[in-house]
Structure prediction request, 477 residues.
Amino acid sequence: MDWETVRSTFKQVWGYDDFRPPQGEVIANLLARQDSMIVLATGSGKSICFQLPALLQNGLTLVISPLLSLIEDQVKDLQSRNLAAAALHSSLSNLDRKQVFRSIPSLRLLYLSPETLLSKSVWERLSDPDLAIVGMMIDEAHCLGQWGDSFRPDYRRLGVVRSALMAHKPASHGKMAIAAFTATADPKTQSAVTSCLKLHKPQVIRTSPYRSHLSLNVAIAWTIAGRKSQTLKFIQAERGKSGLIYVRSRRETEELAQWLRAESFNTCAYHGGLPSSERREIERKWLCGIYPFVIATSAFGLGINKPDVRWIIHYHSPLTLSEYIQEVGRAGRDGKYAKALMLVSEPTGILDSSDRNRQDFFLQEQYKLRYKAQMLIPKLPPRGKYEEVSRSFPEAAIALGLLHSLGKLIWHNPFEYQILNSKTELPDYDRTALDQMQNYISSKSCRWAFLMSTFGFSQEAKSLKCGICDRCLKSNS
Prediction:
């Protein structure tokens, strides 16, 4: 395709004169239907990288996304630009669902969760030989590497989607590209995603997560009261500026919002348990400044572009660095100074054990899942149909996902599996990601250097002192 046509369409639809590196390279790869592994920092314009090629090709591009809020945000934006995009998800009314089904032949982008993609009615519609499918984009692909075995096991079936769909299509439709997009994936996660999705000689395009204008800070809160006191002091100093406070549970968003409203702050709680319409209204009020900040779980912020966020507080430490770098990356997208503060309990957790309790609870849940899966594996048919087995054994999806991650199971298609070794002993939950988070908290070196080394930029990290994180500022004083 003529590159001037690509650029002119980009300017016409999104209003920009030219691409930011490496957007042009990613777009060129996808127009050539080349498999890709894309790791671009938050705010780098990842969505445009797959939306523009989809609009320029004759055929449908599937976008697989883990969150309904993210799907709704992107589709709403595309439709506001009069572009041929739609979504299928469980919250649609029967009428809306029928309308989307009818419109599929004329769409360029169809957004779905893995579970919706693999539902019977959707799969049958996408298998229509007359429907050309040019690509499958996996958005927020780190979810596959991090949580795909237990949290969203259907991600494990995506690797055989291409071969199963293309078996129904004529050769004249050409190749179907698969691309994985994420803002955060260390080398281990990149390898896991590439393997699971069965990417064919993927082009790997990645940028450093380093943001020179973003100050990273970690502070000890000795007590729960101290955690509140530090939060209050911080947001009072930042009054009038846009920010976000991240906590780890729905209940805590409500409690913290209630307390801060009593302290005369106009704010509210945001979490996945709220109705979709209420979440959209909260986002709108935050984007236009009615709410200077909101208290949210990790569900908030994906796909939302607000350039002037000046601060982020992690009221509780995230479980992993991948979560952390996603969330702090929502600050300072305009390239101006921004500050991130993470509050952690003191090392022994005697006075405030909330961080330790939260991690222990997570690990206990993982151990329970693995124990149930281990007990279930010998009962599963060595070769079976996913839907039938899932009806008979509610935890089958997790067991099958874990076996697949260990190389002890293959998918013949998204609906039929074969266990290679039913005597497999499942290993304990891999604590590497949790340990990385703790090492980051206690590190005495430059915060950004630590992150860059963790995410595969070790050479650049060796000579880096950002000069604005708490560790650099302390060493300079």
